[in-house]
């Protein structure tokens, strides 16, 4: 089964490649603004579904295919922390995370569209994985130096656990790969059910 990753994230591409999945990338542009009073879990699930829907709508190939979309958000006290627009926003976010536990919610949506005699309604599989992340207390000097590294600028919550931001993390409870961008155990099972090969040595 042909797989399309509806994401421009290099981290998600690296994670899929890590488990031997062959795929094409087709990033989509959607409005990622939370709805009024939208709960964090509902928002994250909606984002993954909308990314997949937008990608499916672009397909013109009449062969069977699957589209994988995902969204990762950092949540503290029910607040969704997106990507910072500037240093001031990044500092505010990191101070909220400092010395406490927050949640990283990663949703994954896989839609499989069949052609020919197997055509019909698309198969949809969606999962939400929540991981608790504990930060050590951060100083303003650390936050400034981290911002100057350039890493926080395209990261939800203003940090990347797979990069320099790892030094802020005292412990995690849950899926490390989900915090990076894809919960690999769950994704591998979803792909296998859709006949997308994992552990492909030619991938």
From TrEMBL:
Coiled coil: none annotated. SUPFAM superfamilies: ITPase-like. It holds the Pfam family Maf. The keyword Protease does not apply. It catalyses: UTP + H2O = UMP + diphosphate + H(+); dTTP + H2O = dTMP + diphosphate + H(+). It is found in: Cytoplasm. Keywords: Cytoplasm, Hydrolase, Nucleotide metabolism. Signal peptide: none annotated. Its EC number is 3.6.1.9. Belongs to the Maf family. YhdE subfamily. Nucleoside triphosphate pyrophosphatase that hydrolyzes dTTP and UTP. May have a dual role in cell division arrest and in preventing the incorporation of modified nucleotides into cellular nucleic acids. PANTHER family: BIFUNCTIONAL DTTP/UTP PYROPHOSPHATASE/METHYLTRANSFERASE PROTEIN-RELATED, BIFUNCTIONAL DTTP_UTP PYROPHOSPHATASE_METHYLTRANSFERASE PROTEIN-RELATED. This is dTTP/UTP pyrophosphatase.
């Amino acid at each position: 089964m042909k797989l399309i990753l509806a994401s421009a994230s290099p981290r998600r591409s690296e994670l899929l490649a890590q488990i031997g999945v062959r795929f094409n990338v087709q990033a989509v542009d959607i409005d990622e603004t939370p709805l009024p009073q939208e709960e964090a879990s509902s928002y994250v699930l909606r984002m993954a579904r909308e990314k997949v829907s937008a990608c499916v709508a672009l397909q013109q190939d009449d062969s069977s295919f699957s589209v994988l979309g995902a969204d990762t958000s950092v949540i503290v006290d029910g607040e969704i922390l997106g990507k910072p627009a500037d240093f001031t926003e990044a500092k505010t976010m990191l101070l909220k995370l400092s010395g406490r536990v927050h949640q990283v919610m990663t949703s994954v949506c896989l839609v499989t569209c069949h052609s020919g005699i197997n055509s019909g309604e698309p198969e949809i599989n969606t999962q939400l994985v929540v991981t608790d992340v504990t930060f050590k207390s951060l100083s303003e000097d650390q936050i400034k130096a981290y911002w100057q590294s350039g890493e926080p600028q395209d990261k939800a919550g203003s940090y990347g656990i797979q990069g320099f931001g790892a030094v802020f993390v005292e412990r995690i409870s849950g899926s490390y790969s989900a915090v990076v961008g894809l919960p690999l155990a769950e994704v591998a099972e979803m792909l296998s059910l859709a006949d997308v090969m994992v552990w492909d040595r030619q991938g």
